[in-house]
Amino acid sequence: MSQAQSAQSKAQETAVYTHGHHESVLRSHTWRTAANSAAYLLGSLKPHMKILDVGCGPGTITADLAALVPDGHVTGVDQAPEILDQARATAAGRGLTNVEFAIADVHALDFPDDTFCVVHAHQVLQHVGDPVGALREMRRVTKPGGFIAVRDSDYAAMTWHPASQGMDDWLDLYRRVARANGGEPDAGRRLKSWALRAGLTDVTAGSSTWTFAAPDERAWWSGLWADRTLASAYAERATQGGHASAEQLRAVSEAWREWGRQEDGWFSVLHGEILCRKEA
Q1: CA torsion sign, 138 to 139 to 142 to 146?
Q2: Residue 195: strand, helix, or coil
Q3: 116-122 and 50-54 beta bridge pairing
Q4: Cα–Cα distance between 65 and 59 in angstroms, integer?
Q5: 161: helix, coil or strand?
Q6: pLDDT tens, residue by residue, 131-177
Q7: At 234, which helix (H) or strand (E)?
Q8: Counting runs of H as helices and runs of E as strands, what totals does the chain give?
Q9: Which pTM value belongs to this model?
Q10: CA dist list (Å): 170 to 43, 167, 174, 211
Q11: Comparing C-alpha atoms, which of 40, 17, 2 is closest to residue 105?
């Protein structure tokens, strides 16, 4: 099988994106910045670098990366054409001229070998059908000496206080729906393993967290998940796939709101991170 045929075969293994792009999802995605979502990468950036941002979504991290490489260039890619218009608007609103956006599948990137100084993916590999193949493809388009940077959450490692049966039900439900869609919700702990299986040899693995505890943070985090549970593509896939009834989704949504009302409420999202250097 030729390289092009192999890449095309991998493209068929892309999983269904669990969340979709409902407003409750974008409420979270547009909050993300390079500082709160890619801090492990920032020390490796140089002003001249050419960067590929895989699964760029609404483009907030992409725009931050473009601002950090003023003499370089950033290409943001996503499988969903509709979200790229928002990403373009984000970049235009910041007056950035060194960034562009295109439709792409991480299993079959339409770029030559050795194109980018950095290939970055945030919260992507948990949603794809072949994460090892995706990493091989990311490695292919990275220049020798360049970096592959990946960060993914790990749902089973998420934790909160106070204890809540409804929140336990949410976590169980989400993991079942994500896996039924072909993804791996506990991706964070697997990133190093996937990178080694993809043939990457210079791999630095780490972790970091998002924490939501202040009243405004609890209200925001609980509200977006309460809404997402009822109105997003995830909610549709939960019911259509037979994983939960509408009544069960309402109970989970209310559990999120109840947690958000707790004065001592605390929620932590663990992320695995890998920064891999491609051999020169």
Answers
A1: positive
A2: helix
A3: parallel
A4: 10
A5: strand
A6: 999 999 999 999 999 999 999 999 999 999 999 999 999 999 999 99
A7: helix 233-240
A8: 12, 8
A9: 0.92
A10: 36, 5, 6, 18
A11: 17
